[in-house]
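FAQ: What does the model actually see?

It sees only this:
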Amino acid sequence: MSEFNGEIRKMMIILSKASLENVYAAFVLANGARMEGIEAEMFFTFFGLEAIHDKKMEHLHVATVGNPAMHMPTMIGGLPGMEALATSMMKREMEKLDMPGVREFLDIMKASGVKLWACKLAMEMFHYTKEDMYADLDGVITVGDFYKQGAGVGAHMLFI
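And it is asked to produce this:
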């Protein structure tokens, strides 16, 4: 094995929330890793599973309540229609930048070699089956299995 020089060789990204901004942040990071020749794997757990749930992935929202980056009081963010408005505005800005939809982005990542894993525990907790998920999912694994996938010099884990 060659001497390790500190370079990143693999990104292991854990997605626990499926708000639109978290999903796209994780997808951009995984896709960017592949574009730089870095291996990338994603582990979807808890509410992050919605990003790969076949019937939910295209209906993700921007989190307006409890999101300090929204720069609005929690009470305003919780008003009826605010989440829909923020989501609509975010999607419009993403379209201007030619950002793909969630399903298309998953297809792009798979084509570039990103591995996609669903958390076994969260799948059981939410009563999801593999058939409920994105068709090209690499599998349903335990967190221990995911850690083993990330073993080795130059692997980095990122929790989103």
